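Hey, can you fold this one?
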Amino acid sequence: MHIEILAGRHTESRDCVAFEVVVDGETAWCSVSYHALVIHFDAQDCSQEEMLVAFDNGRLRIDDAVCYALELNGGAPVDLTATDFG
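Sure. Predicted structure:
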């Protein structure tokens, strides 16, 4: 399975940050929850700015977690939660 994580990201709602991945040539949207960003990546609140800063600071761990989940589920979109980061 070939996975490419694209650089862009945005807040889809006050609940998560969404980002685009390409799995074997097919585009999928994945996300990481606000709760995960607070617990594991030090977001201070659910403002767009805080969530994006926390996402950017944790990007390597987030990318690793989404790749692992994509491998497990065959490339379907992934919604990462706090439990995905142990």
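The radius of gyration is 12 Å. Let me know if you want another pass with a different chain boundary.
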